[in-house]
Design goal:
With 184 residues, this protein is of the alpha/beta class. The chain contains four helices and nine strands. The structure holds guanosine-5'-monophosphate and magnesium ion (MG) (2 copies). One of its GO terms (cellular component) is cytosol.
Length: 184
């Protein structure tokens, strides 16, 4: 593991850098099998998706487009507010398109339930949800990912795109913060 002064804030590692990369290669292969004869549009949910998205689109090696939407249901807290806001709207027409949604983590399901309805209303032909992490313990909406990287326990995780107060997104692995970090 490369040196990092973020490591000292981590209580435990849940998914290592090597495990993440191996799993993303598998997810990329599965996407290639499903979409190689289509021209899908990847839609990443900002900001948490940005590192996963970069690795996933390269692993899939599909003729495809890349687009982003900004959604927010968190206000620097570790729990969802349940109310989803669009902070940066889609810039392209998605009607008739096969959409691959790329999310960092599926938790309560509020964000992806909102996004699925929103994209169906905009005329998406199909919606495939890919999430790096799935935390089923706290689901409030009946929504499942079509592909997911890892199931994680009911703990607040950071790293590989996921933040706490906008920090730790650049950590190479997924981990749980020490409790004292939250009380600082
Ligand atoms: P949901 O709407 O499914 O509750 O949560 C969606 C968003 O909440 C995720 O895209 C992510 O940004 C944030 N989130 C949920 N659980 C966690 C977590 O354990 N760690 C971090 N850093 N963000 C989380
Ligand atoms: Mg997210
Ligand atoms: Mg966040």
């Amino acid at each position: 593991m490369a040196k990092s002064n973020m490591d000292q804030d981590i209580l435990k590692v849940l998914v290592t850098e090597d495990e993440i990369h191996a799993r993303i290669r598998e997810l990329g292969d599965q996407l290639y099998d499903r979409f190689h004869d289509k021209n899908p549009m990847f839609v990443g949910v900002l900001s948490g998706c940005f590192i996963f998205m970069a690795d996933l689109v390269r692993a899939a090696q599909l003729k495809s487009e890349v687009e982003f939407i900004g959604l927010s249901s968190y206000k620097n807290a570790t729990k969802s507010s349940g109310c989803v806001q669009i902070t940066r709207d889609l810039q392209r027409d998605i009607s008739g398109r096969d959409i691959i949604v790329v999310e960092d983590i599926l938790d309560s399901g509020n964000t992806l339930a909102f996004l699925k309805d929103y994209m169906l209303a905009k005329g998406a032909k199909s919606i495939t949800i890919v999430t790096l992490l799935d935390k089923p313990a706290r689901r409030e909406k009946a929504i499942t990912a079509d592909l997911s990287g890892f199931v994680v326990p009911d703990e607040f995780v950071v790293g590989y795109g996921l933040d706490y107060c906008q920090q730790y997104r650049n950590m190479l692995y997924i981990g749980v913060l020490k409790p004292e970090v939250y009380s600082k």
